[in-house]
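Entry for the shared binder. Reason: the reviewer on the internal report wants the predicted structure included alongside the sequence.
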Amino acid sequence: MESGIFHTTYESDMALRRTPLMRLRLILVIAAALIFPFLANGYQLTLANQIGITAIGAIGLNILTGFTGQISLGQGAFMAVGAYSSGLLAARLGMPWWLTLPFSCIITAVVGAIFGIPSLRLKGLYLAIATLAAQQIIEWLITHWTVLTGGVEALVVPTPTLFGIRMNDDFNFYWIMLLLLSATTLFAVNLFRTKIGRAFIAIRDQDIAAEVMGVNTFQYKLLAFATSSFFVGLSGALVAQYRNIVNYERFTIETSILYLAVIIIGGLGSVSGSIYGSVFMVLLPAILTNLGRALGGVIPGMSRLIPFIQQGVFGITIILFLIFEPEGLAKIWRDIKDYFRLWPFSY
């Protein structure tokens, strides 16, 4: 009976997966991710790609909000910066699609750092209002800077190809998404094992105490905004390349609220929780839509009610998680693992 985890070397103590069971679960997840696209149909691959893109953006937001404690309502705007940067670089400058990804990430990181400057003096609700202002400012620039963005007209992005193969096909794009999601997850997990990541957490827990201990809070807050925006920009750039079209309506305040819901339901301050929340928030509307279609023949007008039902379920879900499990799906999964690990002495 396992009664504890004891390590005899620093290497085993610092490993990302410390026990054989944890390593086995990781191997099974990797195997399932590699096999899935060969068994899934087009609709399922589309949902998987949406989950991956959402997870990358959610991890970026969790770095800022969950780990550093800086509330942001500008997620949609920063995604728009990444999407328009990638689309414009490809459409106007003829840059290869794969090269537009890092450039759009860097541009978004710079923009995020600029809007993170108020975090030196603001926190909590006031910082949230400042990031909401960023959302409105960037939306206004996109819709009115017609020479650059085209205004309210959609920006058409060239089809991404590699060696003559169309890469935004559901099957091909899945591998791009999976690679970038894996890299983002690995980076985020290791980030909080470093001095920088620990400084982020110290600022979240008590910024005054962190500053007394020698943490340059302003520098690390700006770095948190830049790091978060980097991955949010990557998420937006992937949307642009996957959809071949960029429109400001895809990146409104509703998008910002959706991503906040993702990390709240998945678990604040949890990288894996960002992925769980993305799965939940992408699959929930899909399930409700399919259920509405199935009941369409039984309940007249059901198809018209589905959008309102989705919004209602969306709000109720957030409220229930905040009341009954504030730490989200990550905590629920952790409790399940602890139960079976300690069974039959689970009390």
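Summary line for the report: The domain at 35-342 is CATH 1.10.3470 (ABC transporter involved in vitamin B12 uptake, BtuC).
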